[in-house]
Amino acid sequence: MIPTLVFYSQFDSFEQWQALLAPLLPGIRICQEQDVEDPESVLYALAWKPPQGFFARYRNLQLLINLGAGVDSLVGRDDLPAIPITRLSDPNMGRMMASYVLFAVLRYARDIPAFEQAQRQRRWHYLHPRLPQSVRVGVLGLGELGAYAAAELVRQGFAVSGWSRSAKQLEGVRCYSGLDCLDSFIADSEILVVMLPLTSETRGLLDARRLALLPPGSCFINVSRGAVVDQQALTEALGSGRIAEATLDVFDREPLPPEDPLWGMTNVLITPHLASVAIPESAARQIADNILRLQRGEAVLHQVDPARGY
Ligand code: NAP
Ligand code: GLV
User: Fold this and answer.
1) pLDDT number for residue 140
2) How far is the CA of 277 from the centre of ligand 2 (A)?
3) Annotated catalytic residue 225
């Protein structure tokens, strides 16, 4: 029986991943679901958002490698045996995410939406630039991606605060932890960047009450998961102008349905869930290394804690 790695993703190129992984994993067959010859031979899965029931026939699965950072589509599933789940932990993914966050924050800090609007009206609209240190940016979630983005914002000179579950020390970032200080954290953020994983604790965390704590005229950036935020409450706050602007990469339902009012809002920038993506050139090596570690009987790296949800 040839050990098999089954691949599943609707967003990533199987051929590209296979070409990079095959030389690193000699002796392992890499294929997609429809090409699995013997489900019993499938020991490893490399998957992004596989449908419910996907794993049911792979009874010998030993390792599930999430083809991304967030594992909310994997933890707590009933078609999955109790095996290690790993995530991608790739500095290039962190850099890609940080560039998105930096773009969105700079766009607001430099009043670019106002100039975009003025240009459409052929209007010379002078707004004196603010110094970055006077702009208070709050980053919710200081994990691999959040900490990277926070460091880039610090490098740009912004007044950066960060919030996480456990206490942290990050250079240049005022760090807060725990629910007790969340309300005051939100109330102090002129630009709020959501970089939390979706877990049972964070689902709906930014509800109507908490969104109402944002300072009037604040800006909101979500690159985590749509369900962390009450999307209807966010839409209402944006409609009333209480939240002035939003950059949204993630939504309750993806693709965002054509009839969703967010599409028509001039103060909302929508991107289709691509703030950061899995990068085969840099992540293939860590995926292969983890499989080889498992084969040698060593603990795998970048394992998530299903009980914690991330
Ligand atoms: P991570 O390394 O798992 O870090 C998660 C951070 O959130 C940690 O700082 C953690 O606190 C904090 N956190 C978790 N639960 C919390 C809670 N209940 N209260 C307060 N803080 C909590 O995650 P990451 O790699 O930075 O990625 C974050 C998320 O970004 C992913 O889970 C995914 O959903 C999303 N993402 C989106 C895209 C995109 O393209 N839009 C791409 C990649 C990832 P501790 O540090 O104390 O544990
Ligand atoms: C993308 O959303 C990821 O979690 O990697």
Assistant:
1) 99
2) 6
3) yes
